[in-house]
Amino acid sequence: MIKQTTNHVYYDGSCPLCRLEINFYKKFSGSDKIFWEDISPTGKGKLHPDLNPKAAMKRFHICSGETGLLSGAAAFSALWTLLPAFRIYGIIAQKKPIIYLLEVFYVIFLFFRPLLQRLLKNTASSPQSKKKVDLLLKKTHKIVVKNINSERPYNKAQHLFFYL
Question: Would strands 7-11 and 68-71 be described as parallel, antiparallel, or unpaired?
Answer without folding.
Answer: unpaired
